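Quick start: what a row looks like.
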Amino acid sequence: MSDIQKAMALLITTFTKYASKEGDKHTLNKEELKELLQNEFGDLLCKANDQTAVDRIFKDLDTNKSNSVDFSEFVNLVSCLTQMCHEHFIGKQ
């Protein structure tokens, strides 16, 4: 597999790992999202331990107002964070 294919597989595997903990296996509830943010994004999202921040992130991600975060909404988060990191590193060159 190419590096991009490996990255895609890792996103799917990671999402599934957390979504599979409770209820609907295809979406993240707020607690699953919080755990994912804390464990997988760590220092990148320093507010992952702040419940108010997690509530806001959840609300912003849940664009279809289903009270859960589906894979598409999760990928939007990863995409936005990736763009921010890219811009940060380009600015340092």
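That is the whole record. The chain has one domain: 1-89. DSSP finds four helices and two strands in the chain.
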